[in-house]
Design goal:
heterodimer, A: 131 residues, alpha+beta, N-terminal domain of TfIIb, three-stranded antiparallel beta sheet, 2 helices, B: 272 residues, alpha/beta, two-stranded antiparallel ribbon, 10 helices, 35% helix, globular
């Protein structure tokens, strides 16, 4: 089939609007609101209307980046995670903040804030839907 | 009627008169436009009234039919079109956004209930293959009521309605006739960045001016508006102005040149 309309949920915020992604030869070429979706009923916000565009964006991060010599450079995951762990251990609690996601489950978000508050000792918790 | 349309399309595919059929398919997640290439697939064809077949894909700003035709340039394509779908195809073809060559429009008339729900001025296509066209146009009671109000009240009405705008660009994105590479609704000249709500009435009028002889009155702008702004009333008024002044109705036929897309000898602008 040359063009498919693939149902999905908008990845941006917790509202979870229904999308019909337009796929041509395996490439995302557009997005349409899903009229039958009970949450959004055929309407989208400005982010949802462009929800297909970040997938193939050249600005998208595909590997961790570590700043070396004043420049962000690609790095393997192990090196990046070790660095983050070391910095978190070294930082004062108020110097740490965590951004969670509206697209995680309640349970994951609960764990996130608990980890930040109890283990790291910081109240700096926020989430992506406020970006 | 659905069975007749399916049979017609299946026969056309089997006889290789068509290679592809474009229409609305039923899915678990609700009906959506799709292309059918086999007779079996056509069992999922439905005549669900609310899904427009012609729309612009972004960021390419090209309509879906043109994109598919680019991929399969020699494929003979049948489109199971309602009146509004056909109007979009005609007007896009006039503006070189797609070619109607090799396309068979399999026109289906909408019934009275559907036409009233859509407040459709012309709920049947020119290439009518199935169904009976409604013999009298569907009136728009909301528009008639608004047009009876004094000018100041109408202005106040629109001032309030357009102040609800959250600048989501849904009306522009949903419009099958909006395909400009550079959209003036995003241009800093008319629409200052960060101004919320956008300046009255410039933001919405930019689109209206561009759609003056293009708007096919499909209602997609209004359906896409999360703030329930009755955008279609504006478009309908505009359409009736263009009809009265230029005798032109967008989408009614594929050949008549549009007033903004043509110059006639003797026009003041046509300097010798």
């Amino acid at each position: 089939m040359p063009n498919e309309s693939v149902f999905s949920i908008c990845p941006y915020c917790g509202a979870g609007c229904g999308l019909n992604l337009q796929v041509l030869d395996g490439r995302l070429v557009g997005v349409r609101p899903s009229r039958s979706h009970p949450v959004s009923q055929g309407r989208l916000c400005i982010k949802g209307w462009h929800a297909n565009e970040f997938v193939t964006s050249e600005d998208r991060l595909t590997t961790p980046l570590i700043r070396k010599d004043g420049r962000l450079q690609p790095a393997p995951w192990k090196e990046a995670l070790d660095l983050v762990a070391a910095r978190l251990r070294a930082a004062a609690p108020d110097g740490i903040g965590a951004l969670s996601s509206a697209k995680c489950t309640n349970e994951e978000n609960y764990l996130m804030q608990k980890f930040v508050r109890v283990v790291l000792g910081s109240n700096n918790v926020d989430h992506c839907a406020r970006l | 009627m659905l069975e007749q349309v399916r049979r017609h399309c299946k026969e056309a595919l089997d006889a290789k008169r068509l290679d592809l059929v474009y229409g609305v398919g039923n899915r678990k997640a609700g009906p959506a436009p799709r292309f059918f290439s086999t007779a079996e697939e056509l069992d999922e064809l439905v005549l669900a009234g609310k899904e427009p077949l012609v729309f612009t894909c972004r960021p390419s700003d090209r309509n879906v039919v043109d994109l598919v035709r680019e991929r399969s340039p020699t494929a003979k394509l049948g489109i199971v079109a309602r009146g509004c779908d056909e109007r979009a195809l005609f007007e896009l073809a006039k503006r070189f956004q797609l070619s109607l060559d090799g396309i068979e429009i399999i026109g289906v008339a909408c019934d009275q209930a559907q036409a009233e729900e859509c407040r459709c001025p012309r709920p049947y296509p020119k290439n009518l293959a199935f169904g009976t066209p409604l013999d009298k146009p569907v009136d728009d009671p909301v528009l008639e009521k608004l047009q009876r109000l004094p000018l100041e009240e109408r202005l106040a009405f629109w001032r309030y309605q357009l102040s609800k705008c959250v600048k989501c660009y849904g009306c522009r994105n949903a419009c099958p006739m909006c395909f400009c590479k550079e959209c003036q609704m995003e241009g800093e000249l008319f629409v200052p960045r960060g101004a919320q709500p956008p300046e009255f009435p410039t933001f919405h009028f930019v689109q209206l001016i561009h759609l003056a002889d293009r708007c096919i009155d499909c209602g997609e702008c209004e359906r896409a508006c999360p703030m329930d702004i009755p955008l279609r009333l504006l478009k309908k008024s505009l359409r009736s102005e263009v009809r009265e002044r230029f005798g032109y109705e967008a989408g009614v036929d594929p050949t008549t040149a549009s007033p903004l897309g043509s110059i006639e000898r003797g026009e003041p602008s046509h300097a010798e």
